[in-house]
Amino acid sequence: MKDCFSCPQPSDAPMVDDCPVVHLSDSAEDIDKLCALLYGVYHLNSESVDTSYLAMMMRIGRKYEIASLTSTALNYMQHLFPSTLQEWDNRQGEVSRLSDNQDNAFIFDIINLAYESHVPSILPAAFLSLWRNYTIESILSGIQRRKDGQPLVTILGPQAMHDCLRGRMTFLPDFLHRVAGHLEKPGEYGYPFREYQIPDYGCEDICSKIFPDLLVLLLELAKNESFQFHQGIDEIWTDSEEPCKPPLCTECKYQLDSAFDNGRNEAWEGLPILLQLDQTFKVS
Length: 284
Ligand SMILES: [Zn+2]
Known about the structure:
Among the domains are: about 1-80, no CATH class; about 170-275, no CATH class. It is mainly alpha-helical. Helix 2 packs across helix 3 (about 50-65), helix 6 (about 105-115) runs antiparallel to helix 7 (about 125-135) and helix 9 runs antiparallel to helix 12 (about 250-275). The chain has helices at about 1-5, 30-40, 50-65, 65-80, 85-100, 105-115, 125-135, 135-140, 160-185, 205-220, 235-240, 250-275, 275-280, and strands at about 15, 20, 145, 150-155. It has 13 helices and 4 strands. Strand 3 and strand 4 form a beta hairpin. About 60% of the residues lie in helices and about 5% in strands. The structure holds zinc ion. The site of zinc ion has 9 residues, from helix 12. It comes from Hypholoma sublateritium (strain FD-334 SS-4). This is BTB domain-containing protein.
């Protein structure tokens, strides 16, 4: 930015208080927000962030090479939309609180900003949070809110919407398929004679009776309007219409929990590929 003011000016260039007048091509709103940030009028805090400030920090920070602006905005987005599943799980309370405000389209804004500023790394976590907090209907129709007293609909941009729907359609079957794969017994049996880890040899009769119910419970996740990506089978069971713990024997419960956990971790790792982010962002 210093370079803007040190450019040689014509002798008749307008001056204010012996300083040259420099015309900027940025929007007045961006410059206004930049000043509010630089003079400490606005503070980026995790309680209620105004996404238009994040957008300004990315735009102005990159254009004028103000590294502290871009890195602050990036750190904030990467904190909420991290690259590991464990961190993603830990952030969901915070992200839901930020999205709960009705006058707010927080996750929509963040995803659009990630496309605009070319930050694909936060997108798997951001899309998963979007699917968790919004129904397909809200994703398609966008979020209605008011800005400066005027009605405004925030909707994902065309490429973001395209990637979002592709991911939303493919992620859940991919996840369930992986869980089911981990429940299969390794061995010489293949289709159509699949063998499963549950019931185990010699375990209680109840395990064989409850196993089909567990599979139905998993499939019913596809019925839900939003997709929770629960941390464990117990959490799904608690959320279901007949909440109770699956009464499996210890060995079968262990097999089920580890199949779920492995499937969940693999689905998370595979999400960037399902979203085809490498093609959208031409990452080599
Ligand atoms: Zn059992």
